[in-house]
């Protein structure tokens, strides 16, 4: 544990790590470590003893073996864009940054696969294969910064997962360093591997099953044509109904995003993307595939939106207009920053047919806590992202945000949904797990973790509810065990 | 089998749903007869059976339609066969959500029928849909030609309820299409052949049925050209839902040709404008590849041809000696098929080969009695495996007589990851009672 590592021991270990990795590859001074004390969710902070920067699988394995010898916990980290505290060193020890392992190792266009290192930035893979007409489909909103390794840990999604699936649907094989330091391949280059689907299971395990050091993904041919429709509605209910109406007409768009009034105004103020000011909600619907017949599909989408009362529907005229519309969507979080000192992005999933009632409840919950909420989310997947706007300088406001967030998750669970669609459980939502899983479900998952991670050194203190929280799910604020130990603070 | 267990089974499901003795004959696997067959009607009954069997240290073998029971090493003991076909209800289907929750004993065709009433389908099309149950399809990771575009079980399954070896009821995943809460248990149970738990309910993604659906049969002079054509399709803008490559013998089994040549079977579905365009474009794209002719099938003819293709493992020859499944890189499919055909020819054995060319899965069927003796079959299977492994792939014996299975391992060596698979097995089924001894590495 971090607090228990005495200075002499720490100095010795630093020297050993530097011997292993080189001088510039080890951080251990508190001011150097600060950068790594949180991820995209700044609510939690925790300091590591060391942050290390390996450049090869052998180095990762050696670090993990050292951690095992010393009984030190360790956690892998990519770009740190996660939103659930998943890569925090919750119990001290080592943060293993994979940012120096960022190469595209091989692209096999004939077989439509790429072999990459975990620190590769998601979008850089699409850039690498783009000239030959390919791309990597999972596109989280942070794709300009987040890494493929981080996407593996969280099974990341994005707007286009409606049609193309999430990260796991694109991963064939992984070279991993197991929590005991052993290097092995799970899955491989072919579409099937005999035995259990180990690669499939590893994806989304939030760094608790080991560290991926090479990743084999499918790359897709870029679609022949793309069409983007923007529909404006006078009520959120109408927009929600249009989501199901589009599906009801036998279409699966590539993406179907909803942006509510608060977000539209913020985005227009900040970037002027051409969203319809004054509309209660807008849907950004993208169709892709064969050029032939795409117009006919767009007509169906437009008709579905009009049937649901859309006051204005338009199709992006050219690629520039399409990019502008997407810029609005992908920059929405930045725009919130202009209208509110802080915001917290929630992540819950509901069956898409329950959108109207759930969105109403979300705004009721926010109002009851005296908070504003901006919704910008993957409506086609039913993946909500209510952004609760607040001012951390106002005493008690942050606690109210956390409380409102918990209530929103309860609503998601109550309608048969999930408490996370793409951000992961991490530290943030461990104590909400009992909202959707029984103790037997969680025990089974613990057994599984035991098979990979018997000593519990690999990313401890995540995913599973702290034992004392069991049976009292969804209590809004409770100090995390690591806070009580003084190892981390919640901000 | 211990008498108290038999009494317990009768108490749990009722005497009418327990078979013993000669009545168990339809459930023989590799010459072994189960001690009893129990057919539960609810997941609670499944849990009670597993608990009772665990107390009696008796193995339990889950059984759906039985169409994949040939896969696996000869079982050391069958114990209780858990026949799940009574659990066949569609529990929830909300078309607007594109999801359905089902009891896993439902046959695939019954499920498709239910979903079809509301214009949707589950995009999995493995063989024997009228017999195969959803649970069996998931547990054996079965798929068919349309896997090319729509993916396999891991792309459709979003939630499971399983009964564990200890009789506990455990849920994984959920009922929504996007969900990262907790470990992805649905992935763990796909293709696990019931060795980690019994899937009793599943939530799957479903899709709208396409407005138009055609099958283009394109025949070529030789396999080599057909393989080149398949690669040309993959590199093109075309988006076929299926891209199957058949050699001459496989084509003959479909009632076309005299055993020579080769063919591509392309599924083309979607909105009518796109289907029309793709059918025309296929013809244009394939013409330079020594194309003999193309035919566009629709309706019953289309369905019958796909059925014959999917049923190749059983239908290719009057009598089948063995079926092997190869997984290789898509670009190597045609080469491996050519070399595999040459191996069979040298051994004087007739073989039919068919592949999901874009996925890299080849079904290799050896003709039986009158063509080959066991030694020749063993020889060919061993050579095939060496060939596939040499190409960086894996080979699995999908069905073969006991005499062959004893001589040729059913599974390949999965490599070092077997150790972690074994740790998972011993963690989740410490007494080794769930379908023991049949899976990879003796799991």
Description of the molecule:
With 491 residues, chain A is an alpha+beta fold. Chain A is 34% helix and 20% strand. In chain A, helix 8 (236-248) packs across helix 10 (294-307), helix 8 runs antiparallel to helix 13 (355-368) and helix 13 (355-368) runs antiparallel to helix 14 (397-414). Chain A is globular and about 70 Å long. The two termini of chain A are 22 Å apart. Chain B is of the alpha+beta class. Chain B folds into four domains: 3-83, Uridine Diphospho-n-acetylenolpyruvylglucosamine Reductase, domain 2 (2-Layer Sandwich), CATH 3.30.43; 90-208, Uridine Diphospho-n-acetylenolpyruvylglucosamine Reductase, domain 3; 212-310, Alpha-Beta Plaits (2-Layer Sandwich); 312-415, Alpha-Beta Plaits. Chain B contains 16 helices and 19 strands. Chain B has helices at 3-13, 43-55, 108-116, 134-139, 147-150, 153-156, 185-189, 223-235, 248-253, 272-286, 299-310, 312-315, 333-346, 374-390, 402-407, 418-428; strands at 18-20, 36-38, 60-63, 80-83, 90-94, 99-103, 120-121, 157-163, 169-173, 198-205, 207-208, 212-220, 242-247, 262-270, 291-297, 320-327, 351-356, 361-367, 394-399. In chain B, helix 8 packs antiparallel against helix 13 (333-346). The radius of gyration of chain B is 22 Å and the shape is globular. Classes of the chains: A alpha+beta (491), B alpha+beta (443). Chains A and B meet through strand 10, helix 7, helix 8 and helix 15 of A and strand 9, helix 7, strand 11, helix 10 and helix 16 of B.
Per-chain topology:
The complex is a heterodimer of chains A (about 500) and B (about 450).
Chain A: H1 7-21, E1 26-27, H2 30-33, E2 44-46, E3 50-52, H3 57-70, E4 74-77, E5 94-97, E6 104-108, E7 113-116, H4 122-129, E8 134-135, H5 148-154, H6 161-164, E9 171-177, E10 183-187, H7 198-202, E11 211-218, E12 220-221, E13 225-233, H8 236-248, E14 255-260, H9 261-271, E15 281-289, H10 294-307, E16 312-315, H11 319-330, H12 332-339, E17 342-345, E18 348-349, H13 355-368, E19 372-377, E20 383-384, E21 386-390, H14 397-414, H15 439-452, H16 481-484, E22 488-490
Parallel strand pairs in A: 3-5, 4-5
Antiparallel strand pairs in A: 1-3, 2-22, 6-7, 7-11, 8-12, 9-10, 9-11, 13-15, 13-16, 14-15, 14-19, 17-21, 18-20, 19-21
Chain B: H1 3-13, E1 18-20, E2 36-38, H2 43-55, E3 60-63, E4 80-83, E5 90-94, E6 99-103, H3 108-116, E7 120-121, H4 134-139, H5 147-150, H6 153-156, E8 157-163, E9 169-173, H7 185-189, E10 198-205, E11 207-208, E12 212-220, H8 223-235, E13 242-247, H9 248-253, E14 262-270, H10 272-286, E15 291-297, H11 299-310, H12 312-315, E16 320-327, H13 333-346, E17 351-356, E18 361-367, H14 374-390, E19 394-399, H15 402-407, H16 418-428
Parallel strand pairs in B: 2-4, 3-4
Antiparallel strand pairs in B: 1-2, 5-6, 6-10, 7-11, 8-9, 8-10, 12-14, 12-15, 13-14, 13-17, 16-18, 16-19, 17-18
Helix pairs in contact in B: 1-2, 8-13, 13-14
